[in-house]
Structures are given as C-alpha cells and as structure tokens.
Design goal:
CATH architecture of the largest domain: Sandwich
Number of strands: 8
Number of helices: 10
Order of helices and strands: EEEEEEEHEHHHHHHHHH
CATH topology of the largest domain: Jelly Rolls
Shape: globular
CATH class of the largest domain: Mainly Beta
Number of domains: 3
Distance between the termini: 42 Å
Helix content: 40-55%
Radius of gyration: 20 Å
Oligomer: single chain
C-alpha cells in the first residue's frame, strides 16, 4: 500500500449531491509535523494501525475517529506513526455540512474507533474508485461512500475516557467490548471471548462509563436510529427492527424519552433544517 492524496474539486459530478469532496487522503506510515495548524475547512479523519509501528508512547496507540470543523486549532506535540484516511470539504461545503455532522455542538475529536471488516472493505472500495477517479460518475460514488463511512464512524466511535485505564489489556478491552455491543453481539458471549467474569467486567466497565451496559446499548441503538431517520425514508417499524428494538412500541417509548419527540417529528425537524440550509 502507498500513500496518496487526491484533489476531487475539478471532477465532474453527475448528480446534485450536496456535499462534494475537496480531497481524499490515504496516508501510510504517516506522522504529522510538530506544529500548530488552524483549519480553514472541515476534515474527517480515521487514524488506525498505530500499533503496527514503533511509537514512544503506548497510551496513544488506540485508533481514533475525528471530525475537525473549520477554525479548529491543531496542536501536535508528538510524531506518532500511523495510517490515516481523511476527507476534506471546501469552506463553502464545510459551512453546510458542519452543523449536520456536529449537531448540538457534539465534539468528535479523537474518539476511540475500532476498524472492522466493513471499514476495511469500504477502504479498499475507495482505493479502487480513486485509481480511476476520472471515469464519469466515480466522483459521485466517492462522495457517497465518504458520507457512508463518516456516518458509520459517528455511529460506532466512543469517547476514550481519561478515567479509563490506559493499558491496552484493560481499558482497550472494555472499549472493544462496548463497540461489539453496539454491533449487536450479546454480552454473555463477549465476556467469554475476552475472559471476564461478570464481577470483574462490571468493575472495569464502571471505571470507564457512567452508565450501565444496558443504558449504553439503548443509547447506541437510538443514535443509530437517528442516523437512519435523517439519511433515508425507511419506515419507523423497519428502523426499530434494524436497531435491535424488540417492538415498535418500545422503540417509540425510548425515543420519546431520549429525544423529547417522536421519530416522525425528529425526521421532519431535521429535513426542515436541511431545506433551510440549501436555500
């Protein structure tokens, strides 16, 4: 694999997709220079494979997902080798997209993100598209694939708690279990897979998270349902099933409690915001 940065701004698009990419970068064995950088556009970054290189600090080896809006001041103090995928958007597109990705002022900097098989497949698909990016329609496909990968990152990334143990065999294991729970794996099988008793698991879980695994899972399912509500037209019953809710009624109860509105009201509100932003 080799590094590549592709500028897509001058490629012809076939559709009126509202968020065309400016650049895509796939950086292998990468280490950013030690300096301050003020961003003038939106960047979304996946940093991974840090454990594959010899780094001076084991506490920074975990893979991360970040959304960096315009105006972010990056202060780099360490040159840690890693692989990185980044997407960037022009200032004009960044102005429209930032309120959607960072809704309610959420901070998505340096979240724990565990690249899985789906991420690897999307990364390979992206590489294939970039190899022949000038083919008519490929720019549109890259734009859509980027947005799919970004929303997957938002749906599965987790905050790396400063209170959590830093060693890879403790805090990292709990973070990995949390991601596997988000993906639908039962807790009992994960405890067996990672070698935990229920008592030792809950002790370490409570050192990392302020909610129970059940509360964490409900929140994760609701966050996924929000992404499905705003990114398509699936009916509420299908979204409830996809997100792991036992019934449509239970989905409505949880959603109302969490968001203070029904799924239909949430979708209508978000679509109204998008319409106003396009004017």
């Amino acid at each position: 694999m080799k590094s590549e940065v592709c500028n897509l701004t001058n490629l012809k698009r076939l559709t009126a997709y509202p968020y065309p990419l400016c650049e895509v970068g796939i950086m292998i064995n990468h280490a950013a220079p030690e300096k301050e950088v003020l961003l003038d556009r939106l960047f979304v970054c996946f940093s991974f494979n840090k454990e594959a290189y010899e780094n001076p600090s084991g506490s920074d080896l975990y893979p991360t997902f970040s959304i960096l809006p315009p105006g972010t001041l990056l202060r780099r103090t360490q040159r840690l080798l890693h692989d990185e995928l980044f997407f960037s958007y022009t200032p004009e597109v960044s102005e429209k997209l930032t309120p959607i990705l960072c809704k309610d002022g959420k901070n998505y900097q340096h979240l724990f993100y565990l690249p899985d098989a789906a991420f690897r497949e999307d990364l390979q698909r992206l590489r294939n598209l970039l190899q022949d990016k000038v083919t008519l329609g490929n720019a549109d496909r890259i734009d859509v694939l980027a947005m799919q990968m970004i929303f997957n990152g938002i749906s599965t990334a987790l905050p790396f708690s400063p209170a959590a143990p830093k060693q890879p065999d403790t805090g990292m294991k709990i973070q990995e279990i949390a991601l596997q729970l988000k993906r639908g794996k039962p807790l009992a099988s994960l405890l067996k897979q990672y070698g935990y008793s229920r008592r030792s698991f809950y002790y370490e879980w409570n050192s990392t998270f302020s909610v129970t695994p059940k509360q964490f899972l409900i929140t994760a399912r609701l966050e996924r349902s929000q992404k499905l509500l705003i990114s398509g037209k699936l009916p509420a019953a299908e979204i409830a099933a996809k997100c792991g809710f036992s019934s449509l009624r239970y989905f409505y109860e949880c959603f109302q409690k969490h968001c203070n509105c029904t799924p239909g009201e949430y979708r209508k509100r978000f679509q109204g915001e998008k319409c106003r932003q396009r004017r």
